[in-house]
Amino acid sequence: MKAPESRHHISDLEVILEKEKGEFEESLWNTLHREAGLSSSILKLKEIGQMKMVARAIGS
């Protein structure tokens, strides 16, 4: 393989790598954002459960 041909292949690979990096970063961001939302919902449900327990204890 000649030097100009090698440079062309390297350039092509760099373009592919940048595209895949962007797709990976977007996927990672979406996953983290979704999990953060789930964590927040779980904490809210836990707090509601604790409030119900306190309300039952006070009402008894």
Your description of this structure?
This protein has 60 residues and is mostly helical. Helix content is 95%, strand content 0%. The longest helix is centred in the middle third of the chain and has 57 residues, at 3-59. It is rod-shaped. The N and C termini lie far apart (84 Å).
Radius of gyration: 26 Å
Largest sheet descriptor: none
Number of domains: 1
Assembly state: single chain
% residues in beta strands: under 5%
Encode the helix/strand succession as letters.
H
Contiguous runs where pLDDT drops below 50 for at least 5 residues: none
Shape, principal axes of CA atoms: rod-shaped
**C-alpha end-to-end distance:** 84 Å
Question: So how many helices?
Answer: 1
Portion of residues within helices: over 70%
Mean pLDDT: 87
Structural class computed from helices and strand pairing = mainly alpha
Find the count of extended strands (DSSP E, 2+ residues): 0
Write the layout of secondary structure elements.
Layout: H1 3-59
Short synopsis of the structure:
By secondary structure, this protein is mainly α.
Provide tags for this entry.
60 residues, 95% helix, mainly alpha
